[in-house]
């Protein structure tokens, strides 16, 4: 029943990078680069998953999950990712905020169809 | 230049509650309740701000920011909020994931219009 939009993280502790951003109008290669970065990130050591949503106004949040802080630092320094970050500041984002946090507790809910009869 | 969709959090450490959810189709009073919960949360001790985005498929992420874990626990136990959580499981959400994390580092970017000339 659960959407595949959720990351299959295991028991805490692990780390989350919250990336909130306001996009500028126009694609300008953004979609292609975002797909490439998602693909590359998923291959990094310590990567646990990602959850992402962007609304019609271009405001979006991407939460990526990592086993440890060193994995996060290594991904930030990845050469292709550094290039994407630079293009992000030059042409894709009006503003963004990044927060690196240690997940201490987690829980969730998945409806069963027959719970709502 | 910065969108008012960003929370004006101060220097870490502080806490984030990431709430990722898949909505069921139809409003069923959700919009009104979400607005009421946002208003109530903002009055809680320790509340620092919120950032939220939901896409056209009904998948959304809300990150709320708090001064400490006790503030998070107190808000979770708020009577009106408990009622909203129950309705959420009964009629609004197919699935959700909640993660409580301690923000250790944060940074951001705001474009200056003349940076792109």
Automatic annotation (TrEMBL), chains A, B:
<dbReference type="InterPro" id="IPR052936">
    <property type="entry name" value="Jasmonate_Hydroxylase-like"/>
</dbReference>
<dbReference type="GO" id="GO:0004497">
    <property type="term" value="F:monooxygenase activity"/>
</dbReference>
<keyword id="KW-0503">Monooxygenase</keyword>
<dbReference type="Pfam" id="PF03992">
    <property type="entry name" value="ABM"/>
</dbReference>
<feature type="domain" description="ABM">
    <location>
        <begin position="28"/>
        <end position="86"/>
    </location>
</feature>
<dbReference type="InterPro" id="IPR007138">
    <property type="entry name" value="ABM_dom"/>
</dbReference>
<protein>
    <submittedName>
        <fullName>Antibiotic biosynthesis monooxygenase</fullName>
    </submittedName>
</protein>
<keyword id="KW-0560">Oxidoreductase</keyword>
<dbReference type="InterPro" id="IPR011008">
    <property type="entry name" value="Dimeric_a/b-barrel"/>
</dbReference>
